[in-house]
Amino acid sequence: MTSQVRGVQLARLLGQWHALPGRRRSPDYAALAGAVRGLLADGRLPLGVRLPAERELAQALRISRTTVSAAYRELRESGHLASRRGAGSWTMLPRTHRVASTGLWTPQDDHDMIDLGVAALAAPPELVPAARAAAEDLPRYLGGAGYHPTGIVELREAVAHAYTERGLPTSADQIMVTNGTQHALDLVLRLALAPGAGVLVESPSYPNALAALAARRARITTHGLAADTGWDADLLLGSLRQARPKLAYLIPDFQNPTGHLMPADLRERLVATAHAVGTDLVIDESFVDLPLDGTVVPPPAAVFDRHSRVVTIGGLSKPFWGGLRIGWVRASAPQVQRLAATRVGVDMASPVLDQLVAVHLLADAPAIVAARRAQLTTQRDALLGALAQRLPDWRVTVPRGGVTLWAELDGPISSALARAAEEVGVRLAPGPRFGLDGTLERFLRLPFTLPAADLIEAVGRIAAVRYDLDRGGRPRWREPAVIA
Fold first, then answer.
1. Partner of 189 at 20 to 30 A CA spacing, among 16, 322, 391, 424?
2. pLDDT digits 0-9 by tens, 144-197
3. Closest among 365, 352, 346 to 182, alpha carbons compared
């Protein structure tokens, strides 16, 4: 059965669809059609969803039905809407689009695209030697079936040792190896979260985590982060006491996308409050290895856990390489065994060869991560300098680690800017992808994982289209196609 979005729901997603500078010089129907295309482009409006009837949407937006009719007609002409008399209208995309790694629908002919939608580094030079060494180690595993639901013991011991070095005593029995951090989160949610249960998340937060929670039909409560200071301790702990969610998903170490770092005293109070109200904490440490400017990282939240309330997830994607799909869960030994039992119904185990590569990379982690930090510092400073020069009205808090800037723009233009930037070869992840219900239009995530020259060029292109928005005019839409 085709799902349907109601008029009030679509109106909430559309937000300030006709409030952009200069947009009033274009017809309202064109602005409305463009806003719907933007929702489709960044994944907030799914494909195959039936849109509200023209009269219903007109009432929700408080505009004339004629405007909605004209917008729907333009969407049909551009290939973004299919209609059948008596059956309604449902969303689609023109031909020649594909799904990019960010989850966005993007054109195929993007060889010259500067992709700022992905916050991940290219592979380090040490990866190839590590792969060769792993291949030499592989024969000793070939005599068995190759299924290790919790991971090979060598890797689990290496990960456990890293936690112990950070002041959190950990044994191999407390580690489960997964196919990346997102897979780790999915398994934890399968085990710990019943459909419809309450969850507390930060706003903004990691889009793929929000998608995983939506797939579990979680009832999400948000704690808004201040753009410059991050968590408000009283509000965060008060939200836990009032909502008493089953689970809270938080990113205390260089939060994605803001880059904030949670102080140690708040971590301790957070764990104590979670225990008092019966909330399990899922702590995402994807960026914990990437402090910049000599920043000292507080102890892991699990240091303060005495009641097995904290489950920590992490992986190699950010400090090493996203193409090596290695993540992990750190929890109590009984929880790890329950996760392994849950996993059998999903994917059995992680590839042995990839795990052996990870073992060798972790052995060289101090040198590899030190080089990553130096690289990121240089690229971050280049991006900050370009923004200060070309877009001085944007506000950016300098992150103390991680790989992203969270920029506050000079207007609610994030989605419109992302659509315009695509036309000049820059792919962006607009602010609303990091929140719920179309909020965060004044914000944009900008990763500094590309070479400095690419970042400077990207900012120049973004600045050009930003100023074009002020001059108005209708956006040009590509007519390219869907490959799943």
1. 322
2. 999 999 999 999 999 999 999 999 999 999 999 999 999 999 999 999 999 999
3. 346
What predicted TM-score, i.e. pTM, was given to this entire model?
A: 0.81
SS3 letters across the chain: CCCECCHHHHHHHHCCCCCCCCHHHCCHHHHHHHHHHHHHHCCCCCCCCECCCHHHHHHHHCCCHHHHHHHHHHHHHCCCEEEECCCEEEECCCCCEEECCCCCEEECCCCCCEECCCCCCCCCCCHHHHHHHHHHHHHHHCCCCCCCCCCCHHHHHHHHHHHHHCCCCCCHHHEEEECCHHHHHHHHHHHHCCCCCEEEEEECCCHHHHHHHHHCCCEEEEEECECCCECCHHHHHHHHHHHCCCEEEECCECCCCCCCECCHHHHHHHHHHHHHHCCEEEEECCCCCCECCCCCCCCCHHHHCCCCCEEEEEECCCCCCCCCCCEEEECCHHHHHHHHHHHCCCCCCCCHHHHHHHHHHHHCHHHHHHHHHHHHHHHHHHHHHHHHHHCCCCEECCCCECCEEEEECCCCCHHHHHHHHHHCCEECEEHHHHCCCCCCCCEEEEECCCCHHHHHHHHHHHHHHHHHHHHCCCCCCCCCCCEC
Q: In whole angstroms, what is the distance from residue 480 CA to residue 107 CA?
A: 6
> Structure tokens of 297?
């990282």
